[in-house]
Amino acid sequence: MTATPAQALLLASMLFALGLLGVLVRRNLLFMLMSIEIMLNAAALAFVAAGMRWHAADGQVMFMMILALAAAEAAVGLAILLRLHAAGRPTLDADTGNRLKG
Amino acid sequence: MLALLPPLIVLCPLAAATILLLSAGRMPPPAARVLAAGAVGLAAALTLWLAVLFLSAPPPTYRLDVVLWHWMRVGGFDARIAFTLDPLSLVMMLVVTGVGFLIHLYACGYMRGDPDVARFFACMTLFVAAMLVLVLSSDLLCLYIGWEGVGLCSYLLIGFWYAEAANGAAARKAFIVTRIGDAALLCGLLLLATRIGGLDIATLLQPGHLGGGPVAEAAAALLLGGALAKSAQVPFQVWLPDAMAGPTPVSALIHAATMVTAGVYLIARLHPLFLAAPTVMAATAVLGLVTLLLAAGSALAQTDIKRILAFSTISQLGYMFLALGTGAWGAAIFHLVTHAIFKALLFMAAGAVILRVHHQQDIFRMGGLGRAMPGVFAAFAAGAAALAGLPLVTAGFYSKEAILQQAWHAAPLLWAGALLGAFLTALYISRCLLIVFLGPVRTAPTGRTEASMAIPLAGLSVLALTGGLIEMPNAIAPVHLLFRLLAPVLGPPTAEDAEGGAGLLLAGALAPLAGIAVAWGLWRPRAGAIAPADDGLARGARAGWGFDAIYGLLLVRPFLALGWLNRRDLFDRVPDLLAAATRWGARLLGRMQDGRVRRYAGWIAAGTVAALCLAVRP
User: Which CATH number is associated with domain A5-89?
Assistant: First the structure.
């Protein structure tokens, strides 16, 4: 049995909502980054579903691009986390980062 | 060539004014003097050339239209910046540039030593340009530009010495009082524009275009309101005596020779409109007569030499309005020309006196100046004789005679009033002359009157004595140069103009002589102190018959009270409310910017969801 585009879209939106919820409620920067990964993948899934619906390869092309984007985003995000750690920040709590100059 | 000259003549003083204004006071005074007097002198020379060209080969209908550009064209309403050259505007141009040049020359000497001479000459040349636009424009809207321009320059120059509060107050008073008339004039223009669909003077005056009836009456009455305020006639005369706060050349140029005669010019230019409104004509004549008698009475009691001349100007303008009201357009313009000459002369002679006696203006502190300054004395005497209308030898006699004749034919009562005015005129100017120049010396004069001031005095003296010879009653000599020149604009001289009963002439000649004789009896030089009369009548006359007090009580005080009531500025509260609401909203929204990334993300998510809901709404 193959999934219909509607089902795939439903799954994508659920994943997106979960990811968004994670970004909003988690205070740990690492987990926020992971939630963003989930949201990106939900969007990629929506592209694939749409490509299936219109029988076009564009959706899968976009999926490959989002994969690369997600990798880059993870690399940059983790690099920022390491820099923060190296600068002597004792915590990963995002709410403490609301001031300029550390 | 003919079409090129009028714009060029306007451009000369305008360019000088622009340069002087842009120099922002950095131009050295000698350069400013040369530039201003040179520009106006060039305009005068070009006007003279224009007059020669125009008179030697006049255009077929004695009018030449020069359209410079179309200002606006809206739904059939077409306003043009255009000049019309015809005999009337030519005569006015000759007066404005000719007398204007002599006054600029005089001002070069008079304003020597004033640090702000560039600003002074900037306003003066701007005034000349605006006045030329006023007399040349062929469209009432264009005329209105000049009308407001001269009013602005008048304001700037009355308040020229702004460091003294009284001068600023006088300037504001002049501006506000004339502004009332300007508003009436503007309403009249709007009425004409809506009824006729344009403000071109030639179309406006085509016979039968406006017809008679209440509209013509209303339009004429509104235009008359503007003319009355500009020409300082009852009930608007209160601003002119105070306007003497300005430098004397300003009084001579603006408040005697040119700007105050703009009202006379306006009515003469639009005379078919006034002919269609007999009630307004009658009102013009009566107001003119009332003005000339009241102002002559006031002049008789003044002690300040410039205020005497100011009231005299009001009174002489009253003569012109009387002439306009009786339909004697030519006589009004004739008196305008001679008055511009002799009143400018009187003001400049008075200015020369004032400079020599250390800015003393009270005639009762002068005296015996004739021996110390015989030249100025001669000039003042020539001007005074022309003002009084000394028979046969002065310009004022002929122009006043023309008005008196016409008044007799309109209504003998008007004639009698005007004759009384002529008597009073001779009386007050003889009083001034006798007290200032004869008798014992009270303030010793110093210095010399320099050449740049003496030359205009001499030139205008000659004109004041002989200028009337261009137009004489038939009983003396059938010379009608001016009326014949103006005939294409103002209509051919009527039989009454030329008729001139010898009896009327004799009465008109005897009145000023009687005035001079009475003045000699009252104020002839004698030993002992001399003091102004101080009874109730004299005090009333000196105060201008209490018009200022009445206006103060009826208009100024209630207005000030209203201003006091509204001192918190009720209407300012509305924008204030708006500002407060904005400030509160900003404070509320500002709380959201607390730097917590998760909240931002939440708001972004909420906004996206809301936008999506809106977008996919069935």
Answer: 1.10.287.3510
